[in-house]
UniProtKB/TrEMBL annotation:
It comes from Saccharothrix carnea. The lineage of its organism: Bacteria, Bacillati, Actinomycetota, Actinomycetes, Pseudonocardiales. Belongs to the AfsR/DnrI/RedD regulatory family. Residues 1-30 are annotated as: Disordered. Residues 25-129 bind DNA. This is DNA-binding SARP family transcriptional activator. Pfam families: BTAD (PF03704), Trans_reg_C (PF00486). Keywords: DNA-binding, Transcription, Transcription regulation.
Length: 280
């Protein structure tokens, strides 16, 4: 099932572009424009950092970027900023933040007209960006390409695309933004998408026989996610296929002990079957 935060078919038709993402055409761009959410929320024009400094303006920008090219209704924006007890001036304040973003876009050379980039709708706002300008859009595109190639058993082509998608991440998403209810949900969803993409990448590279190369990554993932049986299962397999069966058995014993102590359960049937094969 696709995430509700993926840029599905509900994207709106954008107005005429305000410029080319690589800065080669007019429209006010003076170099490649980049928006980042897979780590700190940042805005770059070439090598110049154009990120807004005011915390709530940055919070609004994060919300708009994660719903780029679609209308963000005013009500969830207000709830994101002030929770269930917004001030009476909330709507006016949101309008002020939108005005400040438009001024920033023009001042920093991101657009000739801020209203072409951040458009007012009847019940909210829509921020229009090119897919190449926003890291999460590039992440989704590369991930989807990799998954499609895996379905065709084209693992040598799938693996680099999936790794390229993962390389777009610098740290936890929106790390420099105060998170309300909506952005907190976005972060959880994005982290799950990253984890799933990493699993696809590992599967593709295992199909390519890169078992030794995966040991370090899988050890790190089992340490980070001590209750995740999938990463332990894969680590057991790559250790076995690298001639390190005793270490694979140790991974199983460690997982079983952790699951018993923390949850009172045994490893899954698939993991137990792999353990039995290692013993035979």
């Amino acid at each position: 099932m696709e995430s509700e935060f993926d840029p599905g078919d509900d994207r709106e038709s954008a107005p005429a572009p305000v410029g080319d993402p690589d800065g080669t055409a007019g429209g006010g761009y003076r170099g490649p424009v980049r928006f980042s959410v897979l780590g700190p929320v940042e805005v770059w024009l070439g090598e110049r950092d154009c990120t807004p400094k005011a915390p709530k303006v940055l919070q609004v920008l994060a919300f708009l970027l994660l719903r780029a090219n679609r209308t963000v209704r005013t009500e969830p924006l207000i709830q994101e900023l002030w929770g269930e007890d917004p001030p009476r001036s909330a709507l006016t304040t949101i309008q002020t933040y939108a005005y400040q973003l438009r001024r920033l876009f023009v001042r920093e050379g991101l657009a000739e007209n801020g209203e072409d980039m951040l458009v007012t709708r009847s019940h909210g706002y829509a921020l229009y960006v090119e897919p190449e300008q926003l890291d999460v859009h590039r992440f989704w595109a590369l991930r989807d390409e990799g998954r499609a190639l895996m379905q065709q058993n084209r693992f040598a082509e799938a693996a680099p695309r999936l790794r390229a998608a993962l390389d777009l991440w610098s740290e936890n998403p929106l790390v420099n933004v105060r998170l309300g209810a909506h952005l907190s949900a976005y972060v959880v969803d994005l982290q799950e998408q990253r984890r799933n993409t990493q699993q696809f990448a590992i599967e593709a590279e295992m199909e390519l026989g890169l078992h030794r190369e995966l040991i370090g990554e899988l050890r790190a993932m089992t340490a980070t996610h001590p209750l995740d049986e999938w990463f332990h299962w894969q680590l057991m397999m790559v250790l076995d296929r690298s001639g390190r069966r005793s270490e694979a058995l140790h991974v199983y014993r460690s997982l079983r002990s952790t699951l018993n102590d923390e949850l009172g359960i045994d490893p899954s049937r698939e993991v137990q079957e792999l353990h039995s094969r290692l013993l035979s």
